Amino acid sequence: MNSTARFITLEGSEGAGKTTxxxxxxxxxxxxxxxxxxxxxxGGEKNAEAIRDLLLYSDHLDAKTELLLMFAAxxxxxxxxxxxxxxxxxxxxxxxxxxxxxxYQGLGRGLQWETIQYFESLVVGETxxxxxxxxxxxxxxGLARAASRSEKxxxxxESLTFFNNIRAGYLxxxxxxxxxxxxxxxNQSIESVTKQIxxxxxxxxxxxxx
Length: 210
Description:
Number of domains: 1
Largest sheet: 5 strands, parallel
InterPro entries: P-loop_NTPase (IPR027417), Thymidylate_kin-like_dom (IPR039430), Thymidylate_kinase (IPR018094)
Enzyme class: transferase
Function: Phosphorylation of dTMP to form dTDP in both de novo and salvage pathways of dTTP synthesis.
Helix content: 55-70%
Keywords: ATP-binding, Kinase, Nucleotide biosynthesis, Nucleotide-binding, Transferase
Protein name: Thymidylate kinase
Oligomer: single chain
CATH superfamily: P-loop containing nucleotide triphosphate hydrolases
Strand order of the largest sheet: 2-3-1-4-5
């Protein structure tokens, strides 16, 4: 393959099925014979993981504090993990990235889109994903799925309105990045979602490997 590594991200709200989707991506990249790492946000690096605990388990955070912490964690992640791996010709697969801030802190928390764009420019810069799979799920369906899992974190305890706003944020972000972001209907069965992801990856294979 070509010497240029790729950066793939996975986005979606609670209960969208990201664990299953990550496995499909993992298996596909193995089939392609590329070297890659799997990481996550918030987190993915020692300091970023410490910030993750603040973000998910603090009793209360102001919306601006949440945004600042997200980008502080992301800066550590980008500088110490994502860029070094890509420079070593190792692909990166991340469970969430900057699109999540537009969804969660943007339309979710009601912060200005332009403010998030500023931090995106400052922290992310040109380290943008080559491909993003967005798992689009009806919030009620997603929350019902998530309810069967372990104890809820601070974000998962938010209202249905909050998650409807997140979905709107993702869809707005996707409309601005149609070439990069591909929507997967995550309301469907695991088998259907798996086939959709495989189809997108197969469609993108030539572009990603050249």
